[in-house]
Each structure stands twice: as structure tokens, then as C-alpha cells.
């Protein structure tokens, strides 16, 4: 790869990510509960909810800031309401991150411009980045903000220019609006530990450096304040506590969701490195001598290692929490270029291991080895298509002259093959449409659910114009029925013995049998305690149990 050809791999990276992410989205339904929940929050904002304070099931939703929901509403306003338009918002930031990692590589190693194109190609075709980058979640936005912050931090060392200071402030502000103060964990260690990565005469004076970091922090805070000020006023005391403490620092002190052991992310390192780190060239690029070879490598290493340590110490852990560090791995792995040629091509088949394991499992499912899973008897075509794509990935891996060209196609092809082979399971387990269509056709008189942890799984897909009421507490169901004759009740278990309810349908969704009941007309409702029916209890969204946090 010549120094003038870095743009070609960058273009290939952008096109590959766009095509692969689109294919992965098309081949799977909206995934409950995360994607369905976030689209429901955006939908409630679209149908008349507050544009400042997000809501879910009619109650305040404090788990995440509003940037994703704003952007979904923005594209709906421009292009019209559409599920597919909404699902493209988060992957767009994945595409932006692919471009930004090339920009950062160009700045870190101007003497090796070919690393920019390779870094973009590595990020775009890293398996974990493709999986989460194609979903409607917050982490691609956070990744883009982190990359913007790193570009600004590198620019800060070159003098007193205002641009990098403002850029870092904007990056911090956007990161907070995307996913909260967690952006500080991704960005600030690299800024605060500048003396470790900037050596020699080019190192900035400490006083001036930390002064500029402080100014950037204030700029970011001011940007967030434009939203946070009105939000804490409109949201009330409970929202202030949730958004300012529990959903950020509270996670770090004591997890209330997703508790994992301290070694969780260490165990996931092979997955984060697939497929580029699954080779001798990739592992050679991660040798300690390479990680500390120059200022750029030291900056990126500090960025990755401090985040790994910080999130390992936080009790709440999810695989996608380290998505903003995948660009750091891509930058470090881009140093493999001088050793990209492979002598033992047979070792490349090792990159196909995830697909091979899934293929074995998928064939076993089709032959009934796991009776608790859908047998897939009607989806042999998808299994065959998946196996053909997996075989194609093997052919590409074996025949490519340069290892990096083979690796660039392995993850996209293998992931598409996996989703084809799992087509029946994904759609039978996660498709919300069968229940949502029933809800939509019986929603004229209101919809409630007895599931205290209902997270909006069906609300957006059903396009409900009014939020679902979550019924909790003694008498809540009976009182809601009294106030909503003809209303619909969604229950994850049978409501035997409740008079005035007629079962409409039963549907299986995610290992649960959901039942839909319709409340009898007003004249059929039983009277309780005398001649007059019981007055409806106050069943408000605030009484509902909060949805599980992401």
C-alpha cells in the first residue's frame, strides 16, 4: 500500500461498513429490549411528549440523555416517520467513527499515511464494532465523541490555538448528551496523563496544558447546560437525582444492573480483537515495544488501557461499554502493515471459527437437538445461504494475497452468514410484530400491562398514540379496568379469576407466553362495595416500576 493510496482503503472501509451494517439490520428484527425501548422513547417524544425530558410509558425516562431521541425525531421530521430511517441514525455515527479514526491516524503518524486507511478498514470490519454499530444504541455516538476528543487532545500539544480547546469542549458536551458523564472516563485520562505520552522538547508546559483542559471542560459543561438546566427544572427532584447521580456515578459505585466480575472485559478481549488480532501480524503489532514506541502510540495505549481498567473496576458491565476503545485497538493494529504478508495461509481459516461454531449449532437446531429452540424446519434455505456465505469467506481468506485484504472481508461475511443461519431463531424469538399488531387493533380504549418491568417492547411497533400504563400495586388492575371499559390489558402470565376480562389471544415472545385481554363494556363491569362502581384509582406512570437499565 503506497503512501498516496490511504484514501482507497478508507473509501473501502466506509462502503464495507455501510453495506454490512445495512445487511445485518435487514436480517434481524428490532431487538428487545434495547432497540425497542429506545424507539419507544423517541416515539413518545414524537407523539407529543416533552422534547426536553424523555419519557417511557408516559413517565420520565432518566436512564439516558436525549441526543439519540432528538436525532431520531429530527430525521422523522425531515424524511417522514419510518422505522428504517430511525434505525439508520446510530449506524451513521459508526460510519462517522470510521472516518474519524482515519483522521486521527493521519495526525498521529503523518510519516505513515497508509496507517490511516488501514485503521479505518480495521475498525469498519471488526466484528464487535459491526454488531453494535448496526444497532440502535448510544455507543456509536459515544465512540464518535471520543474520537473527536482524542483529535482535539492531540491538537492541544501544538500550541495555544483555540480550535482544539473548543473541539475538546464540544466533544465532551456531545458525549454527555449522547450517554452521560461516562464520556469523561473515555477521554479525560488521556488528557490528564499527558506527561506520560508527550516526551521531549515537544511536551507542552503543564500549567498551560491543564489550564486549556479546564477551559475545554467548562465549554462542554456550558453546552450540556443548555439542555440540563431546563431538564432538571421540568423533570423535578427525582429526575435530577437520577440523571445527575444514579445513572452515571451511581453505576460506578454500586451497580443496579448488569453486575459482572472484575475480569469480564479481560475475558472479552479475544472477541474485541476478532478478526484482526487473531493473527501473528496483529499480535506482533500489540507488542509492548510497539505500544510505547512513539507519542501517538503512547496516547492511544493510555486511552485503551485506562478505559479497560476503569470499566473493569465498575461493577456494572456490558460488552458494548468498551465500544469507544475499539478505534484505539484499530489504531494500534494498523502498525501491522509491514508484516501484512502471510506465509501460512491455512491459519487464516482460524478467523472463521465463530461462524463454524454457529454453523454446527444451527445444523443441530434444525435436526431438533435443542427442542426448546425453534426447529427451523421452514428455514433450510437461510441455513444453506449462511453456509454458502461462510464458505465464500473461507475462499476469500485463503486466496487473498495479502492478509489484510482477507481480514477485511472475514468479519462482514461471517456475521452475515451467522445471521442467515440464525434467521429462524432471531425472528421467532425477537419479532415483536405479532403482538404489536394485535395491540394496535385493540388500542382504541387504552392499553395497560401488568408487567411491572415493561420497557416499551411493543409500543413503538404498534404505533400507539398514547403510552401504555404500567399497573403495579394492589387494586391497580381493577381500578384501571373501571376507568377504561373496552381497554386492552397485556399480561405476561394468565390473569385467572379476574372478572370483566376476556382473553383475545396468547402469543409467545422471548420465553414468555403473553396474553391479551379486553376489558368488558362499562355495563358489564362488576360493582364493588355498593351501588356505585369503585372510583378509578390513580394509576400514573410514576407508580410504574422503572424499565431495566441498559
TrEMBL record:
<feature type="region of interest" description="Disordered">
    <location>
        <begin position="526"/>
        <end position="550"/>
    </location>
</feature>
<feature type="transmembrane region" description="Helical">
    <location>
        <begin position="84"/>
        <end position="104"/>
    </location>
</feature>
<dbReference type="Pfam" id="PF13231">
    <property type="entry name" value="PMT_2"/>
</dbReference>
<keyword id="KW-0328">Glycosyltransferase</keyword>
<feature type="compositionally biased region" description="Low complexity">
    <location>
        <begin position="532"/>
        <end position="550"/>
    </location>
</feature>
<dbReference type="GO" id="GO:0005886">
    <property type="term" value="C:plasma membrane"/>
</dbReference>
<feature type="transmembrane region" description="Helical">
    <location>
        <begin position="116"/>
        <end position="134"/>
    </location>
</feature>
<feature type="transmembrane region" description="Helical">
    <location>
        <begin position="379"/>
        <end position="397"/>
    </location>
</feature>
<feature type="transmembrane region" description="Helical">
    <location>
        <begin position="409"/>
        <end position="430"/>
    </location>
</feature>
<protein>
    <recommendedName>
        <fullName>Glycosyltransferase RgtA/B/C/D-like domain-containing protein</fullName>
    </recommendedName>
</protein>
<dbReference type="GO" id="GO:0010041">
    <property type="term" value="P:response to iron(III) ion"/>
</dbReference>
<keyword id="KW-0472">Membrane</keyword>
<feature type="transmembrane region" description="Helical">
    <location>
        <begin position="257"/>
        <end position="275"/>
    </location>
</feature>
<feature type="domain" description="Glycosyltransferase RgtA/B/C/D-like">
    <location>
        <begin position="63"/>
        <end position="227"/>
    </location>
</feature>
<keyword id="KW-1133">Transmembrane helix</keyword>
<feature type="transmembrane region" description="Helical">
    <location>
        <begin position="349"/>
        <end position="367"/>
    </location>
</feature>
<dbReference type="GO" id="GO:0016763">
    <property type="term" value="F:pentosyltransferase activity"/>
</dbReference>
<dbReference type="InterPro" id="IPR050297">
    <property type="entry name" value="LipidA_mod_glycosyltrf_83"/>
</dbReference>
<keyword id="KW-0812">Transmembrane</keyword>
<keyword id="KW-0808">Transferase</keyword>
<keyword id="KW-1003">Cell membrane</keyword>
<feature type="transmembrane region" description="Helical">
    <location>
        <begin position="295"/>
        <end position="314"/>
    </location>
</feature>
<dbReference type="InterPro" id="IPR038731">
    <property type="entry name" value="RgtA/B/C-like"/>
</dbReference>
<feature type="transmembrane region" description="Helical">
    <location>
        <begin position="213"/>
        <end position="236"/>
    </location>
</feature>
<feature type="transmembrane region" description="Helical">
    <location>
        <begin position="168"/>
        <end position="193"/>
    </location>
</feature>
<feature type="transmembrane region" description="Helical">
    <location>
        <begin position="140"/>
        <end position="156"/>
    </location>
</feature>
<dbReference type="GO" id="GO:0009103">
    <property type="term" value="P:lipopolysaccharide biosynthetic process"/>
</dbReference>
